[in-house]
């Protein structure tokens, strides 16, 4: 599915005309794209299972008004076979720590969404000293295997699918918390997600199946904000709230009407909450 030029201007270009730069960094023997924009205290956005840095660009543009925002790529984004060398979420977390060091970011705030939230949590429990603050959305401490996730993984692994495949597009609709209105936003989500190789998506779902930091959350001693979409069907609000309750001093905020990709559909509200949280809790550390 492709976005017509008129609709692309409506959604992607006009609202996100922010000056930035794109570089490449070598992680685990593979080159990954890294995008930086804005100025101010450093904030690293960790992308989800599909869509890469481009899916986070709208939120990054909002946050770049007050922060230096960095969006790292993940191994597998540019070279799909690279994902086969990643054996756990811990490998992605080590990549993230390495990237922070290579860029010379001193205790940046970290904002992880969905799969990226799991990476951020893994880094936070293993190297909390490297992070000044933590924001999470669409993640819980232990991945719960569901029938839908299992079916999606098997289909992605075994069947080459066209980019307008109805089965997977229905899954993308689930990200909204319900069938979205046709328009540039829904087109944007589908197009960005299909830019990720389907084999990479399948392997990342597989990595999530063994993800569990529930017995290590006590190690997190940095300011933490957990954002939950009230219509998130993948990680329901109750699980977000449970995660926040297990992290000392963590703050929980509900995003009314948001689904799993609330960071995109409710980007202005998310950005306000993140800016307020970092201003009140992380100014001296981040």
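^ Assign residues to that structure.
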């Amino acid at each position: 599915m492709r976005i017509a030029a008129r609709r692309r201007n409506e959604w992607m270009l006009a609202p996100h005309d922010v000056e930035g730069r794109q570089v490449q960094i070598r992680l685990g023997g593979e080159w990954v794209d890294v995008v930086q924009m804005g100025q101010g205290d450093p904030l690293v956005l960790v992308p989800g299972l599909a869509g890469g840095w481009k899916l986070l660009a709208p939120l990054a543009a909002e946050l770049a008004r007050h922060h230096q925002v960095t969006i790292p790529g993940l191994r597998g984004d540019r070279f799909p076979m690279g994902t086969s060398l990643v054996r756990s979420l811990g490998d992605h977390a080590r990549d993230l720590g390495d990237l922070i060091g290579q860029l010379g970011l001193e205790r940046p705030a970290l904002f992880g969404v969905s799969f990226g939230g799991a990476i951020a949590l893994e880094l936070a429990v293993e190297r909390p000293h490297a992070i000044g603050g933590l924001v999470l959305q669409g993640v819980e401490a232990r991945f719960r295997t569901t029938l839908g996730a299992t079916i999606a993984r098997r289909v992605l692994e075994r069947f080459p699918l066209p980019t307008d495949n109805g089965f997977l597009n229905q899954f993308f609709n689930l990200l909204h918390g319900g069938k979205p209105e046709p328009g540039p936003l829904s087109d944007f989500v589908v197009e960005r997600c299909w830019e990720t190789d389907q084999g990479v998506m399948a392997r990342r779902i597989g990595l999530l199946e063994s993800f569990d930091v529930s017995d290590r959350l006590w190690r997190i001693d940095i300011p933490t904000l957990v954002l939950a979409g009230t219509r998130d069907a993948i990680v329901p609000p109750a699980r977000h709230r449970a995660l926040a309750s297990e992290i000392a001093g963590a703050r929980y905020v509900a995003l009314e009407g948001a689904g799993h990709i609330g960071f995109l559909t409710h980007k202005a509200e998310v950005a306000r909450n993140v800016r307020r949280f970092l201003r009140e809790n992380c100014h001296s550390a981040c």
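The first strand starts at residue 20 and ends at 27.
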